């Protein structure tokens, strides 16, 4: 199939373009700087904040992956909304047969974080305007992913942690290889149109449990985790910044950070 990948230079997008090309698809990689692109597929200029650029990027394509979010800005909810609306309208006008969107896991009965609420809104925008398949994943384990880099550096540097309450939040981590298999696997499947799939891994774990497992497997010295109820999301981002070198500006407004590979397998792959 002829397929456009947005967010082609990101953690998931860069790996997805390669996986799609290896599966025999004709890949077009959308980026704001095609002259600097070095990944798989043919680069094309496009930016959801410049809707006029999307028509050329989508021209002649049969399917598209929407992997864009704006968590690096304080107004990410509004930017995500505008970007999704622009892309959905352009995809509809281009006659795209299928859009595949990677969202976030979260129980609808729970109070979703601002980040997950924005992901749900983007889902709704896409599904209302263009044939869409939604995959919802929790933390994706692999080198280069922000959540994995945080976990890796925490267990490598701290023998004892006084942590925010969200380390007790339960999620279902998934290895990047498994996430890619799902993303590639739904492409071109008519039965997947209009569907929402949770792709969490087989092990529901809290972030604290993941820290302990990662510590044991990566040779870290983590011995004790002490959750406290006093760290707000804003303070949590400052706490993480003190002990990691990951860019954490996106965590200030995201109160929280999913069937084949267990978490231990994903950690081993990310080693």
Draw up the topology in text.
Elements: E1 2-5, H1 11-22, E2 26-31, E3 42-45, H2 54-58, E4 63-66, H3 76-93, E5 98-104, H4 114-129, E6 132-137, E7 140-141, H5 146-157, E8 160-163, E9 170-171, E10 174-175, H6 176-185, E11 196-198, E12 205-206, H7 207-217, E13 224-227, H8 233-243, H9 263-269
Parallel strand pairs: 1-2, 1-4, 2-3, 4-5, 5-6, 6-11, 7-10, 8-13
Antiparallel strand pairs: 9-12
Helix pairs in contact: 1-6, 3-4, 5-7, 7-9
The level of helicity is 25-40%
- Could you tell me the radius of gyration in angstroms? 19 Å
Topology as a string of helices (H) and strands (E): EHEEHEHEHEEHEEEHEEHEHH
CATH fourth-tier homologous superfamily of the largest domain: NAD(P)-binding Rossmann-like Domain
């Amino acid at each position: 199939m002829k397929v456009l990948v947005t967010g082609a230079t990101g953690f998931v997008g860069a790996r997805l373009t390669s996986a799609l090309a290896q599966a025999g698809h004709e890949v077009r990689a959308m980026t704001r700087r095609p002259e600097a692109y070095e990944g798989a597929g043919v680069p094309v200029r496009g930016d959801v904040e410049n809707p006029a650029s999307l028509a050329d990027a989508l021209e002649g394509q049969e399917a598209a992956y929407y992997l864009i979010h704006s968590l690096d800005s304080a107004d990410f909810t509004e930017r995500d909304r505008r970007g999704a609306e622009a892309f959905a309208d352009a995809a509809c006008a281009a006659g795209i047969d299928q859009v595949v969107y990677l969202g976030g896991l979260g129980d609808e009965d729970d109070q979703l974080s601002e980040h997950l609420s924005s992901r749900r809104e983007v889902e709704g925008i896409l599904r209302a305007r263009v044939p869409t398949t939604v995959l919802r994943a929790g933390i994706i384990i692999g080198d280069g992913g922000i959540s994995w880099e945080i976990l890796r550096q925490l267990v490598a540097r701290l023998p004892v942690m006084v942590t925010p309450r969200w380390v007790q939040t339960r999620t279902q981590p998934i290895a990047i290889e498994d996430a890619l298999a799902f993303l590639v696997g739904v492409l071109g499947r008519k039965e997947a149109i209009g569907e929402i799939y949770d792709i969490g891994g087989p092990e529901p774990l809290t972030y604290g449990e993941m820290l302990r497992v990662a510590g044991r497997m990566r040779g870290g010295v983590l011995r004790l985790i002490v959750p406290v109820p006093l760290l707000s999301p804003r303070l949590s981002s400052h706490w993480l910044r003190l002990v990691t070198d990951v860019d954490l500006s996106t965590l200030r407004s995201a109160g929280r950070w999913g069937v084949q590979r267990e978490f231990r397998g994903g950690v081993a792959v990310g080693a």
